[in-house]
Structure formats: C-alpha cells, structure tokens
Design a protein that fits this description.
The chain has about 775 residues and is mostly beta strands. It contains 4 helices and 42 strands.
C-alpha cells in the first residue's frame, strides 16, 4: 500500500501543472514609511497619520458574495523603521448597537472587530492575524493554509486601543516588526495582506478590502500585495521573561488530617530573533500552570484518552511550523520539563523547526483500536522534533518530520514524509507517510494489570479472560513486548471544493506496531476509508437565511487482519440565519463492535459483538441580542455499555450560555448531561456543570470565579460483573477557583488565586474538602 501511495504521489508531482490562485484586487498597496511619533490611544490626532495610505474595506465577503456595504470602513496604514501602524475608522449607522465588551485576550469573538491578516513571505502558506474590538481588546493567532489550522494560541506583544464615537468607532494598532518572521535581506518587503471587519447584528457581516472568490478554497492565496518597509530590520528582537510561582497546598490524608506543603518554582523563557526569519526559544522549568484551568470534560463510558490544549508560551511560539496532517507533536505529553530549546525559521522556500526538551517524567499514550490510555514512567525523558518543509512552487509543498522520545530502557522514533499539492483552486491532494521504531520497558504492562501478582498478566497464553473478570486489558496486550518493534502509518486525502460542492475521499492507516508517542495518536491496528460530499446554497440580503448545507459521508474501519471494527453513514442538514444563528439536524447509522469478549485475544471477529446504532443529533447556536449567546447539542439514540458489552439507549445533552451583563461582567455557564439505559433500566446519569463569572476591570486586569461540579449517579444492580456493594451510587466532585490577573502583555503578568476541591458520595451537604491551595505567579518580559 505504501509503495502504491509513493508512486502515485511522485507521478502527480512530476506531471504537475501550476494553477496558483490569482490575487483578486487592485494594484498593490504601497505603505508609506515615515518618522514621527504615534500615541496608540484610539485618537487619530497625531500628525503622522496624515501621510498614511488609506484603503476602503467595503466588500461583504460573507455571508453574501462580494456585495458593497452601505457604510464605510477605512484602514490607514503607515510604518517606520520598526513598526507597522494601522488605524481603522469604522462607520456605524447605529453606534449604540456596537458590540464591545472588556474580555481577556482572544475571547472577543462575537464582538465588533477590525484587523489585518499578514502573509509576510507572500507565499500563500500562512498568515498572522491581528484583531481588536472597539475597546482595544486583542485577538491574535496564526492561520496555516497547508494544514487548514487556525489557532489563537500564539500571542504576540503589540499595542491596540479603541474609542467608540458618535459615528462608529476608531481602533489604532502598533505591530512591532520584531514579532514577525520575514526576509530581512530584501530591500523592500512585499507582503500579502487582507484588512477585515466583523459587523455582528441580525446577520454577522465580514467586510474586506479584497474580492473573495468562493470558487477558490485558499483564502490566503487571494490576499493583496502590500509593499514597503524599506530596509526593514528587526533589531535585537530579544525577550527575556523570568517568572516565579509560589504555592501553599493542603491535602487531607487517610487519617482526616491536613498535610501542608509549600512550593516555590522559578522559570525563565528566552525568545531571540537571531534574524527576522530565524527564532530561538529557550525555557527553564516552564510553569504549566496553576493559573488557567482546562475545560472540564466527562469521561464516563469513554474508552479513549481525552485531549487538552497546550498553554505554555515556549511550546506555542511558532507552533504552526511543526504542524502536519497527523498530530505528531502533542506537547502536553511533556509534563514537567526541566529545560527546552527550540529553533524555528525559514530561508527562501525552506522552513525548518526543531526542539528538544528534558522532562522529569515520561507520559506515554498507549493506543489501541477499542481503547487508549496514558502510562507514566517515573524517570527523566528527553524529547525532540525536527520538521522541515519546502515550497517547491506556489502549489506544491513537501515535508519531513522526525520525532523521538527516550528514557530508561524506552525509546520511540518516528520518521515521515508528507506532500501537499494544489492542482487547481478547487482540487487538493494531501499525503503523509510515517514509520516508527519503539522499545518499551519490560514492566510497562504492569501499570494496566488489575492484579497484585504480575505473573497473572505475564501468563496470558494460558489464561482465559472474559467480561466477568480480567486482570489485564488491551493496553496490557499492546505493551507486553520487551523487544524492539516497528510500524507504519499513512494518510491520503483528495478534496475538491468549489462554491457549491465539496467532494472528499481519504484513507487513514496506523498498523498495530505504529507508535507516535510524542503526539496524540490514540488509534493503532486501525485502517479507515471515508468518502464525503457536500452541497451549499447561499442566501441574499432580503432573505432570513444566509447559508444552507447538506452533507453526507460514509466510512469503514478494519483492523490489520481486515476484521471490521465500524461501518458508518452520516447525513446532516444545516442552515445559518439571522441573529448569527446556526441550526443542524443529523442522522447516523452505524455498525460497530463493542468490547472484547475474551480480553486475552486482540481478535475482532468471533471475539466482539456487532451492534447496530441509529443516532439523531441536534445542534443550535444564536446571539439573539448584544452580549448574549446560547448554544446546545442533543444526541439521542443507541449507545454501547462498554463495561458490560451491552446495547443500550441514551441521551447526551450539552448547553451553554454566555451573558455579558455589561461591558465588565461576564457569566459563562456550560452544562453537560449524559444518561445510559440498559436492559430497560438506568445504568448511570452523569452531570457536569461549569460556571465562570468574570469581572474585567479593563483590558489588562480581571477577577474570575470558576466553579465545576461533577455529579454522577449509578444503578449498582445494573452492573453485570460487579458486587453492587462495590459500586458508588452517587459520586460528587466540586472544585472552586478564584483568580485575579493583571496582564500588561502576554508575558508580563501577575496572578493571585485560591482553589479547593471537595468530594462526596451522597448529598451535596456531605461534600468534604480534600485539597486547597493558595498560589501566586509573577512574570516579567524584558524586551529589547
């Protein structure tokens, strides 16, 4: 299979004819370069603004197809030797309806917004994104055209300020060139840019300075060229950011006594732009941290590991340089690094990224085809990545990835090649091929063995193990290997996307021996084929709806022995309308296997039960008035009781409400409900409630109270292979966190907070505190 894929890909590249998307815009924007002072305060009285290039942004690109807006938006652009300045003059026929609230960074989606996208190499691969609401609250991030990923995780250090007027609002931005990657050797820079405005009212309009062709699936390809920045230099481009985290923790022991421990951790982040297109990052003991909590997730009746987002600046800076079709770099696996070094950059058409890190522990995701779980080695580990990408021409990108992890008697190495080919503005081929070599410690399997006697797990060939009792599971079988083993993986997809139609076919394979331990790859012994089709319609300004879509896909999954794991067919219809609303109704028909009957055998055929499922799904979202958004998801139909391998019925319900009571106060409530009924009676009901109340004093400081309550009820008599006395009828977990934060910029900040966690098994009043902590973090970014 891999030889066939390589042959097809090579033939496509050799015979390829370039169909690069043209820029649909007028002449290039020439950005004047002046000397002078601009005070970024949302007031355009500084004399230097009189020399700025002014660009209209009156083209509605979404939801309507390039029609002129009724009122003006204008961007003013000017630069000096080290900074790009942009001012936006946004007219509004109803200034009282402007949506703008004080929020934390990157959380202003849904507000009125203006901003710029910048492709500093003008090669249609990726773009920086800088946006601000009318109060100066910032959103920034990276858009990657190669992977189609958009992320707000990256944080630059820049200035913005806004001012609401009786005619609309004004926003000023100062973007230091030192935070951008570009080719400093050029006498004059030629960047691709788009100027955008989001205007949320009954319908959210996206305004732009360019014509956006819906037949072209590449938006970055349609940016207009902006020239200027003569002899642009980044300067020293050095950021040194030391930080200190101090905490006092108390934990209740088995004798109901509080045990206290104090901890002080110093860390250091260094960011040095060696050249404008080569960046060095270094970190010592980065904090993970006690400051921001992960989003709460339900894990009951879920056999696969949960994914959490990265938050540490060292790993986030230029993280898109490491992206590929596979998630090969999941830096949350690096739990407590002692140090890390990262080098990212590009030269002409070559992009490279490299990092190494030393970790106090070793987290390993053990994958499977019916479950996955994390293992932990109590030993230092070293991890590293090398990523290289070459833009062969405007439409062909080739890449190489190598990752490694090593520890005592353990290693995992992954090497892969990938290609991204645009045959036209609508047709795209993506290919990635991987090979891995792994060696597990002899006793790794013991972490998953449900017995004090490890010999029980080692004697698998002589033991029959079924649902009624088992000392081992799939992870034991996947890790009980003391010899070096190898594996391979591949993803191939072809997509055609034009204004009204999308067709896609993809093949994905991770064989039983493949491991991507630095990434988040939870499935192996897993081969999937899928096909999808989509039809879209677009409304006009005099209709209540703006876009409608019908989508359907079919997929089939087998293990390496061609035993079927799942066959699924989906169809859904969705419509976007007024009040920024979105409604979707979906139906899924699925044949899927449950848990293994004999857990000493990885076989599927004859060792699993094939369940047929019919599932209905309903999703809805709306912003009916300024400051309020609501969303909900309901899933009802057939489910599997994985613990006892039985068919059941269930409902999963999610609802969310975000309410900005005024410009400073925000309430965010999310509730998740999951119920499983088996054999005519309930097995469990799980509820998770996450309430966050924030008072945002201004752009820089906030006070937030977070309350997360997990409440699960079980029917002990509906568990087939367990003594009812060993099943908790009720389990409750309540966590509270009060956090004050002041952020001068993303790396100069002060946090102070308190958290506690309580558990109980009956009534809410019986909850008992188990942990409490007082913590503080102080960081300062020295910029040069």
């Amino acid at each position: 299979m891999l030889k066939t894929i390589i042959s097809l890909t090579t033939a496509a590249l050799v015979s390829f004819h370039s169909y690069a998307g043209a820029h649909y815009s007028d002449d290039a924007i020439v950005i004047p370069q002046q000397t002078g002072t601009i005070n970024v305060d949302g007031n355009l009285s500084d004399p230097i603004w009189q020399h700025a290039r002014r660009v209209k942004m009156n083209n509605i690109t979404r939801p309507y197809n390039n029609i002129k807006n009724d009122f003006d938006t204008e961007a003013w652009l000017i630069s000096d030797d080290s900074t790009l300045y942009i001012a936006f003059v946004a007219e509004d026929p109803e200034p009282n309806a402007i949506r703008a609230f004080y929020r934390d960074r990157d959380r202003s989606w849904g507000d009125d917004l203006v901003g710029i996208k910048i492709d500093t190499f003008n090669d249609q691969r990726q773009a920086y994104r800088f946006l601000s609401n009318p109060l100066g609250v910032q959103i920034d991030g990276i858009e990657n055209e190669v992977t189609k990923h958009e992320s707000d995780s990256w944080d630059g250090i820049w200035e913005s300020a806004g001012n609401i007027t009786d005619k609309g609002y004004v926003v000023e931005m100062a973007l230091p060139l030192r935070m951008l990657n570009f080719n400093e050797d050029l006498t004059m820079q030629n960047w691709g840019i788009e100027l955008v405005r989001y205007y949320p009212r009954d319908v959210q309009l996206r305004l732009s300075n360019i014509y956006m062709d819906r037949k072209n699936d590449c938006e970055i390809c349609q940016h207009v060229s902006a020239t200027g920045f003569k002899q642009a230099k980044q300067g020293a481009n050095l950021t040194v950011a030391p930080s200190l985290v101090a905490s006092s923790n108390q934990t209740r022991d088995e004798n109901n006594q509080w045990q206290q421990s104090d901890d002080y951790q110093a860390s250091l982040d260094v960011r040095w732009g060696i050249t404008p297109d080569v960046l060095l990052n270094a970190t010592i003991n980065p904090d993970f941290s006690t400051v921001e909590s992960d989003n709460a997730q339900l894990s009951i009746n879920n056999t696969f590991a949960l994914f959490n987002q990265e938050k540490r600046p060292f790993f986030l800076d230029n993280a898109d340089y490491f992206d590929s079709n596979y998630n090969l770099i999941y830096t949350r696996n690096i739990n407590a690094p002692n140090y890390g070094i990262k080098l990212t950059g590009r030269s002409d058409e070559h992009t490279f990224a490299f990092f190494v890190a030393d970790d106090e522990t070793t987290n390993i995701l053990i994958p499977g085809n019916r479950s996955s779980s994390f293992a932990v080695l109590d030993a230092n580990s070293q991890s590293g990545v090398l990523r290289y990408r070459q833009n062969v021409n405007a439409d062909v990108t080739l890449g190489l990835t190598n990752t490694f992890r090593t520890s005592d008697d353990y290693y995992n190495v992954v090497t892969g090649l990938d290609a991204d080919v645009r045959f036209s503005t609508a047709d795209r081929l993506k290919v990635q091929l991987l090979q891995s070599a792994t060696h597990y410690p002899d006793e790794l399997f013991a972490q998953f063995c449900n017995s004090d006697d490890q010999q029980d797990c080692q004697q698998m060939s002589d033991t029959h193990c079924d649902l009624s009792g088992c000392v081992y599971n799939e992870q034991v079988l996947r890790t009980n290997n003391s010899d070096r083993f190898t594996g391979n993986a591949a993803k191939v997809s072809f997509t055609h996307r034009n204004q009204h139609w999308m067709y896609r076919g993809n093949v994905e394979r991770q064989n039983a021996g493949f491991r991507g331990d630095l990434g988040f790859i939870s499935h192996v012994d897993f081969n999937k084929v899928a096909f999808a089709v989509e039809r879209r319609w677009y409304g006009s300004p005099n209709q209540w709806w703006t876009e409608a879509k019908i989508y359907s896909d079919w997929d089939m999954t087998h293990n390496d022995n061609q035993e079927m794991i799942e066959r699924e067919w989906d169809v859904f219809a969705s419509v976007h309308g007024q009040y920024d609303s979105w409604l979707q109704i979906a139906y899924t028909h699925r044949d899927v296997v449950g848990s293994r009957l004999d857990k000493s055998n990885l076989a599927i055929d004859g060792n699993t039960t094939l369940f047929t499922q019919d599932v209905l799904r309903f999703n809805a979202f709306a912003r009916p008035i300024s400051g309020i958004s609501v969303d909900t998801e309901i899933v009802y139909g057939d489910k599997i009781d994985y613990r006892d391998n039985r068919a059941g019925k269930g409902i999963d319900f999610f609802s969310g409400l975000k309410w900005n009571i005024n410009r400073h106060i925000e309430l965010k409530l999310q509730h998740t409900f999951s119920q499983l009924d088996v054999a005519g009676s309930n097995k469990f009901i799980a509820r998770l409630t996450d309430l966050r109340a924030t008072y945002q004093f201004n752009v820089q400081s906030f006070l937030r109270l977070t309350t997360v309550f997990n409440n699960t009820s079980r029917n002990p008599y509906n568990y087939l292979y367990a003594d009812p006395e060993t099943i908790d009828r009720n389990s409750k977990n309540l966590s509270l966190k009060l956090l004050y934060g002041y952020k001068f910029n993303p790396q100069t900040a002060f946090y102070f907070g308190y958290s506690q966690q309580s558990v109980g098994y009956e009534q809410f009043s019986t909850l008992e505190q188990q942990d409490k902590s007082l913590f503080m973090k102080l960081s300062y970014a020295y910029l040069q």
